[in-house]
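Schema walk-through. Below, the input block comes first and the output block second. Nothing else is stored per chain. Lengths vary across the set, and this one has 203 residues.
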Amino acid sequence: MVIIGIAGGTGSGKTTIVKEITESLPKGSVAVIPQDSYYNDQSQLPLDVRKKTNFDHPKAFDWSLFAQQIRELKEGKAIEQPTYSYLVCTRLPETVHVEPKEVIIIEGIMCFHDKCLRDQMDLKVFVDVPADERLLRVIERDIAERGHPLDMLIEKYRNVLKPMHDEFIEPTKEYADIIISNSGDSSKAIEVLRTYILSALKK
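--- output ---
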């Protein structure tokens, strides 16, 4: 089994990189574990309090459960991955059954933040994109997919996304084994990662 961590700021294109890596490997050989599934259960809190959650702060995540479930996959055990709803800002009762695979990809904005989780990764990849490009991608995505007004997105970027990125996400770049500049064609980087994974599996 090979465990790959893929981190990077909001709008850096992590999901696209993960999709390209997954599609380059044999079908059914990859399980993707998104960090977004491991936000804290806040069902005991009133909805108005939950809606104030800062989703870009390390305290928003259940790191112990995250690391525990990756450890279980590494041991060959299936897990019940939690699911999270941004609408009600808490964990849902439904889970996703995940079987251990040859390749486990952990994807999230700060999945290198927690040492117990980080130490389980065989390869750590940081997707690096200039701040202005990430902002444009976030604006395009959130207007198109979530209907958010432009002024709200700009305020959120200034008050939450940028300071949280600078404080908690950017510093984790130092843990990366590979840094991908995802401002253009990433096909060569995907091929390097594919070659590494297949070589590691043969060993």
